[in-house]
Write a structure and sequence with these properties.
Layout (H helix, E strand, L loop, with lengths): L7 H10 L5 E17 L2 E19 L2 E7 L5 H13 L30 H15 L5 E18 L4 E17 L2 E9 L6 H14 L9 E7 L1 H9 L2 H4 L2 H5 L19 E4 L22 E5 L2 E2 L6 H6 L8 E2 L8 E2 L4 E4 L10 E8 L10 E13 L2 E5 L4 E5 H4 L3 E11 L2 E14 L2
Parallel strand pairs: 7-14, 13-19
Antiparallel strand pairs: 1-2, 1-4, 2-3, 4-5, 5-6, 7-19, 8-9, 8-13, 9-10, 11-12, 14-15, 15-16, 15-17, 17-19, 18-19
Protein backbone atom coordinates (compact mmCIF):
# COMPACT_ATOMS: atom_id res chain seq x y z
CA UNK A 1 0.00 0.00 0.00
CA UNK A 2 1.39 3.38 -1.01
CA UNK A 3 1.86 6.11 1.57
CA UNK A 4 -0.95 8.26 0.16
CA UNK A 5 -3.40 5.38 0.55
CA UNK A 6 -2.45 4.84 4.18
CA UNK A 7 -3.97 8.12 5.35
CA UNK A 8 -3.78 7.43 9.09
CA UNK A 9 -0.82 9.79 9.44
CA UNK A 10 -2.84 12.58 7.80
CA UNK A 11 -5.68 12.09 10.25
CA UNK A 12 -3.19 12.06 13.14
CA UNK A 13 -1.52 15.23 11.83
CA UNK A 14 -4.84 17.05 11.66
CA UNK A 15 -5.85 15.87 15.12
CA UNK A 16 -2.52 16.88 16.66
CA UNK A 17 -2.36 20.17 14.83
CA UNK A 18 -5.84 21.27 15.87
CA UNK A 19 -4.64 21.25 19.47
CA UNK A 20 -2.46 24.26 18.60
CA UNK A 21 -3.99 26.03 15.58
CA UNK A 22 -7.41 26.85 14.09
CA UNK A 23 -7.07 25.12 10.71
CA UNK A 24 -4.75 22.66 8.95
CA UNK A 25 -4.31 21.80 5.29
CA UNK A 26 -2.24 18.86 3.99
CA UNK A 27 -1.27 18.72 0.32
CA UNK A 28 0.41 15.55 -0.94
CA UNK A 29 2.00 14.54 -4.24
CA UNK A 30 3.32 11.21 -5.44
CA UNK A 31 4.68 10.60 -8.91
CA UNK A 32 6.58 8.21 -11.12
CA UNK A 33 8.28 9.09 -14.40
CA UNK A 34 10.49 7.68 -17.11
CA UNK A 35 12.67 9.77 -19.41
CA UNK A 36 14.98 9.21 -22.36
CA UNK A 37 17.36 11.86 -23.69
CA UNK A 38 18.84 12.00 -27.19
CA UNK A 39 22.31 13.08 -28.21
CA UNK A 40 22.40 12.87 -31.96
CA UNK A 41 20.46 9.75 -32.90
CA UNK A 42 21.47 7.79 -29.81
CA UNK A 43 19.84 7.68 -26.39
CA UNK A 44 22.40 9.09 -23.97
CA UNK A 45 20.36 8.94 -20.76
CA UNK A 46 17.38 6.84 -19.75
CA UNK A 47 16.07 6.86 -16.22
CA UNK A 48 13.10 6.08 -14.03
CA UNK A 49 12.26 8.16 -10.98
CA UNK A 50 9.77 8.16 -8.13
CA UNK A 51 9.01 11.16 -6.01
CA UNK A 52 6.76 12.10 -3.12
CA UNK A 53 6.20 15.14 -0.99
CA UNK A 54 3.87 16.89 1.40
CA UNK A 55 3.15 20.48 2.30
CA UNK A 56 1.44 21.27 5.60
CA UNK A 57 -0.15 24.68 6.03
CA UNK A 58 -1.51 25.93 9.35
CA UNK A 59 -3.70 28.93 10.09
CA UNK A 60 -4.13 30.35 13.58
CA UNK A 61 -5.87 33.67 14.20
CA UNK A 62 -4.93 34.81 10.72
CA UNK A 63 -1.30 33.75 10.98
CA UNK A 64 -0.37 31.41 8.13
CA UNK A 65 2.58 29.03 8.37
CA UNK A 66 3.79 26.39 5.96
CA UNK A 67 6.41 23.69 5.75
CA UNK A 68 7.19 20.90 3.30
CA UNK A 69 9.18 17.68 3.12
CA UNK A 70 9.79 14.94 0.56
CA UNK A 71 9.52 12.30 3.28
CA UNK A 72 5.97 11.86 4.64
CA UNK A 73 7.35 9.85 7.56
CA UNK A 74 8.62 13.16 8.93
CA UNK A 75 5.14 14.68 9.09
CA UNK A 76 5.45 15.50 12.80
CA UNK A 77 8.56 17.61 12.21
CA UNK A 78 6.89 19.22 9.20
CA UNK A 79 3.78 20.04 11.22
CA UNK A 80 5.79 21.63 14.01
CA UNK A 81 7.80 23.67 11.50
CA UNK A 82 4.58 25.01 9.94
CA UNK A 83 3.18 25.97 13.35
CA UNK A 84 6.46 27.67 14.28
CA UNK A 85 6.56 29.55 10.97
CA UNK A 86 3.05 30.84 11.58
CA UNK A 87 4.09 32.41 14.87
CA UNK A 88 6.66 34.56 13.08
CA UNK A 89 4.31 36.27 10.62
CA UNK A 90 1.78 39.05 11.03
CA UNK A 91 -1.91 38.10 11.11
CA UNK A 92 -4.13 38.90 8.15
CA UNK A 93 -7.81 38.70 7.29
CA UNK A 94 -8.70 35.08 6.61
CA UNK A 95 -12.02 33.70 5.36
CA UNK A 96 -11.25 30.04 6.11
CA UNK A 97 -10.36 26.90 4.20
CA UNK A 98 -13.05 25.20 2.09
CA UNK A 99 -15.25 22.56 3.68
CA UNK A 100 -16.50 19.26 2.30
CA UNK A 101 -17.41 19.39 -1.39
CA UNK A 102 -19.49 17.21 -3.69
CA UNK A 103 -17.88 17.41 -7.11
CA UNK A 104 -19.65 16.27 -10.29
CA UNK A 105 -18.12 13.40 -12.20
CA UNK A 106 -15.93 14.34 -15.14
CA UNK A 107 -13.51 12.79 -17.57
CA UNK A 108 -10.20 12.40 -15.72
CA UNK A 109 -6.91 13.53 -17.24
CA UNK A 110 -5.42 10.09 -16.85
CA UNK A 111 -4.86 7.74 -19.79
CA UNK A 112 -3.98 4.09 -19.10
CA UNK A 113 -2.30 3.98 -22.51
CA UNK A 114 0.48 6.22 -21.18
CA UNK A 115 2.93 3.55 -20.06
CA UNK A 116 5.95 4.04 -17.82
CA UNK A 117 8.13 1.59 -19.69
CA UNK A 118 11.01 1.62 -22.19
CA UNK A 119 8.88 0.31 -25.06
CA UNK A 120 6.50 3.28 -24.80
CA UNK A 121 9.33 5.81 -25.02
CA UNK A 122 11.16 3.82 -27.68
CA UNK A 123 8.31 4.30 -30.14
CA UNK A 124 8.28 8.04 -29.46
CA UNK A 125 12.04 8.38 -29.86
CA UNK A 126 12.04 6.46 -33.15
CA UNK A 127 9.21 8.68 -34.37
CA UNK A 128 11.26 11.80 -33.65
CA UNK A 129 14.26 10.41 -35.52
CA UNK A 130 12.25 9.28 -38.55
CA UNK A 131 10.46 12.62 -38.75
CA UNK A 132 13.73 14.54 -38.70
CA UNK A 133 14.89 12.62 -41.79
CA UNK A 134 12.33 14.45 -43.92
CA UNK A 135 14.67 17.46 -44.09
CA UNK A 136 18.42 17.93 -44.25
CA UNK A 137 19.14 18.53 -40.58
CA UNK A 138 21.07 16.78 -37.83
CA UNK A 139 19.71 16.06 -34.36
CA UNK A 140 21.54 17.86 -31.57
CA UNK A 141 19.33 16.90 -28.63
CA UNK A 142 15.83 15.89 -27.68
CA UNK A 143 13.96 13.26 -25.79
CA UNK A 144 10.71 11.92 -24.42
CA UNK A 145 9.09 11.62 -21.02
CA UNK A 146 6.06 9.92 -19.51
CA UNK A 147 4.74 10.31 -15.98
CA UNK A 148 1.92 9.51 -13.59
CA UNK A 149 1.02 11.73 -10.65
CA UNK A 150 -1.50 11.64 -7.84
CA UNK A 151 -2.36 14.87 -6.03
CA UNK A 152 -4.35 14.78 -2.78
CA UNK A 153 -5.68 17.48 -0.49
CA UNK A 154 -7.24 17.19 2.94
CA UNK A 155 -8.02 19.82 5.55
CA UNK A 156 -9.49 20.15 9.01
CA UNK A 157 -12.81 21.50 7.65
CA UNK A 158 -13.69 18.17 6.03
CA UNK A 159 -12.34 18.67 2.53
CA UNK A 160 -10.85 15.49 1.11
CA UNK A 161 -10.12 14.80 -2.56
CA UNK A 162 -7.50 13.38 -4.89
CA UNK A 163 -6.89 13.33 -8.64
CA UNK A 164 -4.68 11.27 -10.95
CA UNK A 165 -2.84 12.69 -13.95
CA UNK A 166 -0.79 11.26 -16.77
CA UNK A 167 1.57 13.25 -18.96
CA UNK A 168 3.76 12.45 -21.93
CA UNK A 169 5.87 14.76 -24.04
CA UNK A 170 8.61 14.83 -26.64
CA UNK A 171 10.93 17.44 -28.10
CA UNK A 172 13.70 17.72 -30.65
CA UNK A 173 16.41 20.24 -31.47
CA UNK A 174 18.11 20.13 -34.87
CA UNK A 175 20.79 21.95 -36.83
CA UNK A 176 21.56 22.58 -40.50
CA UNK A 177 24.88 24.33 -41.05
CA UNK A 178 24.55 27.18 -38.50
CA UNK A 179 20.73 27.28 -38.44
CA UNK A 180 18.75 25.56 -35.71
CA UNK A 181 15.19 24.41 -35.28
CA UNK A 182 13.14 22.90 -32.49
CA UNK A 183 9.66 21.57 -31.79
CA UNK A 184 7.75 19.80 -29.03
CA UNK A 185 4.49 18.04 -28.33
CA UNK A 186 2.73 17.31 -25.04
CA UNK A 187 -0.51 15.72 -23.87
CA UNK A 188 -2.06 13.83 -20.99
CA UNK A 189 -3.27 11.29 -23.55
CA UNK A 190 -1.10 8.82 -25.47
CA UNK A 191 -1.65 10.69 -28.72
CA UNK A 192 1.65 12.44 -29.38
CA UNK A 193 2.81 12.84 -32.97
CA UNK A 194 6.59 12.40 -32.65
CA UNK A 195 7.04 12.02 -36.43
CA UNK A 196 5.51 15.44 -37.08
CA UNK A 197 7.46 16.89 -34.14
CA UNK A 198 10.75 15.67 -35.60
CA UNK A 199 9.77 16.79 -39.09
CA UNK A 200 8.87 20.31 -37.93
CA UNK A 201 12.11 20.71 -35.96
CA UNK A 202 14.14 19.69 -39.01
CA UNK A 203 12.10 21.92 -41.31
CA UNK A 204 12.93 25.05 -39.34
CA UNK A 205 16.62 24.17 -39.21
CA UNK A 206 16.94 23.58 -42.95
CA UNK A 207 14.65 26.35 -44.16
CA UNK A 208 16.20 29.00 -41.88
CA UNK A 209 19.60 28.54 -43.54
CA UNK A 210 20.94 31.46 -45.61
CA UNK A 211 18.37 33.95 -44.41
CA UNK A 212 18.08 37.45 -45.78
CA UNK A 213 18.33 40.76 -43.96
CA UNK A 214 15.15 42.71 -43.29
CA UNK A 215 14.90 46.48 -43.26
CA UNK A 216 13.92 48.15 -40.01
CA UNK A 217 10.29 49.23 -40.18
CA UNK A 218 6.72 48.44 -39.27
CA UNK A 219 5.28 45.12 -40.40
CA UNK A 220 2.25 42.98 -39.76
CA UNK A 221 3.52 40.03 -37.79
CA UNK A 222 2.25 36.53 -37.02
CA UNK A 223 3.25 35.10 -33.67
CA UNK A 224 3.24 31.32 -33.44
CA UNK A 225 1.62 29.83 -30.31
CA UNK A 226 5.11 29.47 -28.84
CA UNK A 227 6.07 33.10 -29.47
CA UNK A 228 2.71 34.34 -28.16
CA UNK A 229 3.10 32.29 -25.00
CA UNK A 230 6.62 33.57 -24.41
CA UNK A 231 5.47 37.20 -24.59
CA UNK A 232 2.30 37.00 -22.50
CA UNK A 233 3.79 34.75 -19.82
CA UNK A 234 5.91 37.55 -18.39
CA UNK A 235 3.52 40.46 -19.01
CA UNK A 236 -0.21 39.84 -19.43
CA UNK A 237 -0.50 36.84 -17.12
CA UNK A 238 1.12 38.52 -14.07
CA UNK A 239 -1.08 41.58 -14.69
CA UNK A 240 -4.20 39.42 -14.20
CA UNK A 241 -3.15 38.34 -10.69
CA UNK A 242 -5.25 39.91 -7.94
CA UNK A 243 -2.18 40.01 -5.73
CA UNK A 244 -0.27 42.15 -8.24
CA UNK A 245 -3.33 44.33 -8.85
CA UNK A 246 -3.77 45.26 -5.19
CA UNK A 247 -0.04 45.67 -4.69
CA UNK A 248 0.06 48.21 -7.51
CA UNK A 249 2.21 45.98 -9.71
CA UNK A 250 -0.26 45.62 -12.58
CA UNK A 251 -0.86 48.05 -15.43
CA UNK A 252 -4.46 46.79 -15.43
CA UNK A 253 -5.20 47.65 -11.81
CA UNK A 254 -7.66 50.48 -12.59
CA UNK A 255 -9.03 49.16 -15.88
CA UNK A 256 -11.70 46.67 -14.80
CA UNK A 257 -14.63 46.76 -17.27
CA UNK A 258 -12.63 48.94 -19.66
CA UNK A 259 -11.84 47.94 -23.25
CA UNK A 260 -8.17 46.91 -23.32
CA UNK A 261 -8.08 44.83 -26.51
CA UNK A 262 -9.69 44.42 -29.90
CA UNK A 263 -13.36 43.62 -29.31
CA UNK A 264 -13.14 40.09 -30.69
CA UNK A 265 -10.46 39.00 -28.20
CA UNK A 266 -11.20 36.56 -25.39
CA UNK A 267 -8.69 35.42 -22.77
CA UNK A 268 -10.04 32.96 -20.24
CA UNK A 269 -9.16 30.11 -17.91
CA UNK A 270 -11.12 26.93 -18.55
CA UNK A 271 -10.31 24.24 -15.95
CA UNK A 272 -13.07 21.97 -17.27
CA UNK A 273 -11.54 21.38 -20.72
CA UNK A 274 -9.59 18.19 -21.24
CA UNK A 275 -7.79 19.68 -24.22
CA UNK A 276 -5.03 21.03 -21.98
CA UNK A 277 -2.95 19.64 -19.15
CA UNK A 278 -4.59 21.49 -16.25
CA UNK A 279 -8.11 20.06 -16.12
CA UNK A 280 -9.26 19.99 -12.50
CA UNK A 281 -12.44 20.40 -10.47
CA UNK A 282 -10.73 22.00 -7.47
CA UNK A 283 -7.69 24.17 -7.09
CA UNK A 284 -4.80 23.39 -4.77
CA UNK A 285 -6.64 24.93 -1.80
CA UNK A 286 -9.84 22.97 -2.43
CA UNK A 287 -11.87 25.83 -3.92
CA UNK A 288 -14.10 24.62 -6.79
CA UNK A 289 -12.76 25.78 -10.15
CA UNK A 290 -14.78 27.53 -12.84
CA UNK A 291 -14.34 29.40 -16.09
CA UNK A 292 -12.81 32.83 -15.55
CA UNK A 293 -13.24 35.33 -18.39
CA UNK A 294 -10.28 37.66 -17.89
CA UNK A 295 -10.82 39.51 -21.17
CA UNK A 296 -14.28 39.23 -22.69
CA UNK A 297 -15.04 40.81 -26.07
CA UNK A 298 -12.04 43.06 -25.59
CA UNK A 299 -12.98 44.30 -22.11
CA UNK A 300 -11.13 43.50 -18.90
CA UNK A 301 -13.61 41.41 -16.97
CA UNK A 302 -11.90 39.70 -14.00
CA UNK A 303 -8.76 39.10 -11.97
CA UNK A 304 -7.52 35.85 -10.41
CA UNK A 305 -7.55 35.22 -6.64
CA UNK A 306 -6.55 32.53 -4.18
CA UNK A 307 -7.99 32.42 -0.66
CA UNK A 308 -5.17 34.36 0.94
CA UNK A 309 -5.33 37.32 -1.46
CA UNK A 310 -9.12 37.29 -1.62
CA UNK A 311 -9.40 37.36 2.18
CA UNK A 312 -6.94 40.24 2.48
CA UNK A 313 -8.75 42.46 -0.01
CA UNK A 314 -12.39 41.56 0.60
CA UNK A 315 -12.77 39.44 -2.54
CA UNK A 316 -13.76 35.83 -3.20
CA UNK A 317 -11.34 33.17 -4.38
CA UNK A 318 -11.73 32.39 -8.09
CA UNK A 319 -10.30 28.89 -7.64
CA UNK A 320 -6.96 30.07 -9.06
CA UNK A 321 -4.58 28.59 -6.48
CA UNK A 322 -1.78 26.54 -8.05
CA UNK A 323 1.38 24.89 -6.76
CA UNK A 324 4.58 23.66 -8.36
CA UNK A 325 4.68 20.30 -6.62
CA UNK A 326 4.54 19.97 -2.86
CA UNK A 327 7.44 22.30 -2.12
CA UNK A 328 5.52 25.25 -0.77
CA UNK A 329 2.37 27.27 -0.31
CA UNK A 330 -0.06 27.91 -3.17
CA UNK A 331 0.09 31.00 -5.33
CA UNK A 332 -2.17 32.60 -7.94
CA UNK A 333 -2.12 31.09 -11.40
CA UNK A 334 -4.37 29.47 -13.99
CA UNK A 335 -5.25 25.95 -15.12
CA UNK A 336 -5.92 26.06 -18.89
CA UNK A 337 -5.48 29.57 -20.28
CA UNK A 338 -7.03 30.05 -23.71
CA UNK A 339 -6.79 32.93 -26.19
CA UNK A 340 -9.53 33.24 -28.82
CA UNK A 341 -10.55 35.83 -31.38
CA UNK A 342 -11.77 36.30 -34.91
CA UNK A 343 -10.58 33.29 -36.91
CA UNK A 344 -8.64 34.16 -40.03
CA UNK A 345 -6.00 32.67 -42.33
CA UNK A 346 -3.26 34.49 -40.47
CA UNK A 347 -0.58 33.91 -43.14
CA UNK A 348 -2.72 34.71 -46.19
CA UNK A 349 -1.56 38.34 -46.41
CA UNK A 350 2.12 39.40 -46.28
CA UNK A 351 3.61 39.32 -42.78
CA UNK A 352 6.67 38.45 -40.74
CA UNK A 353 6.13 35.04 -39.16
CA UNK A 354 7.87 34.50 -35.81
CA UNK A 355 8.29 30.94 -34.52
CA UNK A 356 9.84 31.95 -31.19
CA UNK A 357 11.66 34.79 -29.46
CA UNK A 358 14.75 35.09 -27.31
CA UNK A 359 14.73 37.31 -24.22
CA UNK A 360 11.01 37.46 -23.42
CA UNK A 361 11.89 37.08 -19.72
CA UNK A 362 13.41 40.58 -19.84
CA UNK A 363 10.04 42.18 -20.72
CA UNK A 364 8.83 44.76 -18.22
CA UNK A 365 5.91 43.13 -16.36
CA UNK A 366 4.60 46.51 -15.22
CA UNK A 367 4.56 48.37 -18.53
CA UNK A 368 4.48 45.45 -20.99
CA UNK A 369 7.43 46.86 -22.94
CA UNK A 370 9.75 44.32 -24.55
CA UNK A 371 12.63 43.98 -27.00
CA UNK A 372 13.37 40.44 -28.13
CA UNK A 373 15.44 38.62 -30.74
CA UNK A 374 13.55 36.67 -33.38
CA UNK A 375 14.19 32.95 -33.84
CA UNK A 376 13.11 31.05 -36.96
CA UNK A 377 11.45 34.09 -38.50
CA UNK A 378 10.23 34.19 -42.11
CA UNK A 379 8.58 36.51 -44.57
CA UNK A 380 5.23 34.95 -45.39
CA UNK A 381 2.34 35.38 -47.83
CA UNK A 382 -0.34 33.30 -49.53
CA UNK A 383 -0.25 30.91 -46.59
CA UNK A 384 3.41 30.00 -47.09
CA UNK A 385 6.67 30.76 -45.32
CA UNK A 386 8.90 32.17 -48.06
CA UNK A 387 12.17 33.94 -47.22
CA UNK A 388 13.95 33.24 -43.90
CA UNK A 389 14.91 36.34 -41.93
CA UNK A 390 18.56 36.13 -40.98
CA UNK A 391 18.66 38.34 -37.89
CA UNK A 392 16.16 40.78 -36.46
CA UNK A 393 14.52 42.01 -33.29
CA UNK A 394 10.96 42.84 -32.32
CA UNK A 395 10.24 45.79 -30.01
CA UNK A 396 6.88 46.84 -28.68
CA UNK A 397 4.34 46.62 -25.89
CA UNK A 398 2.20 43.57 -25.18
CA UNK A 399 -0.77 45.58 -23.90
CA UNK A 400 -0.75 47.76 -27.03
CA UNK A 401 -0.54 44.61 -29.17
CA UNK A 402 -3.85 43.43 -27.76
CA UNK A 403 -5.55 46.43 -29.37
CA UNK A 404 -4.36 45.68 -32.92
CA UNK A 405 -4.84 41.92 -33.21
CA UNK A 406 -6.26 41.25 -36.67
CA UNK A 407 -7.11 37.60 -36.22
CA UNK A 408 -6.18 34.25 -34.77
CA UNK A 409 -5.74 30.82 -36.32
CA UNK A 410 -8.26 28.01 -35.90
CA UNK A 411 -5.43 25.65 -35.02
CA UNK A 412 -3.99 25.93 -31.52
CA UNK A 413 -1.27 24.26 -29.53
CA UNK A 414 -0.98 23.06 -25.94
CA UNK A 415 1.96 24.77 -24.24
CA UNK A 416 1.98 23.62 -20.63
CA UNK A 417 -0.96 25.33 -18.91
CA UNK A 418 -1.84 27.41 -22.01
CA UNK A 419 -3.78 26.54 -25.17
CA UNK A 420 -2.83 29.11 -27.78
CA UNK A 421 -3.38 29.93 -31.46
CA UNK A 422 -1.15 31.80 -33.88
CA UNK A 423 -2.00 35.51 -33.78
CA UNK A 424 -1.76 38.16 -36.52
CA UNK A 425 -0.91 41.65 -35.20
CA UNK A 426 -0.92 44.91 -37.17
CA UNK A 427 1.99 47.35 -37.58
CA UNK A 428 4.72 46.20 -35.23
CA UNK A 429 8.31 47.45 -35.11
CA UNK A 430 10.84 44.97 -36.51
CA UNK A 431 14.47 46.04 -36.18
CA UNK A 432 16.71 44.72 -38.93
CA UNK A 433 19.34 46.56 -40.94
Amino acid sequence: MRWWVAVSWIERAITEGLKKVDEIEIFTVEGQSITAELRGKSISVAKEESSSGICIRTIDKGRIGASSTNNPIEWERCLQAAISAGKLVSPQEWSGLPGQQNFPSSKPCSDPQVQLGPAFLKDIIYGLIEGSKQYNADITSGGAEASRTRISLENSNGFQASVDYTDNSCSLETIHESSTGNEFDMSWEAKLDPFQTGKTAAFYAEKSWKGSDINTGTYDIVLSPMALGELIESTLIPALSGKNVHAGRSLLKDKLNEEIAVNSLKVYDLPSTTEGLGSVLWDTEGTPTKRIDFIKNGALNAFAYDIRTASRYGKVSTGSAVRSGASGSPGIGHHNLLVEGRNTEVLEEPAVFIKSVVGAHTANPMSGDFSVELSNAFLAENGELTTPVRKAMLAGNVFEMLKVIQGVSKERKVIGDMILPSVRIHDQTVIGV
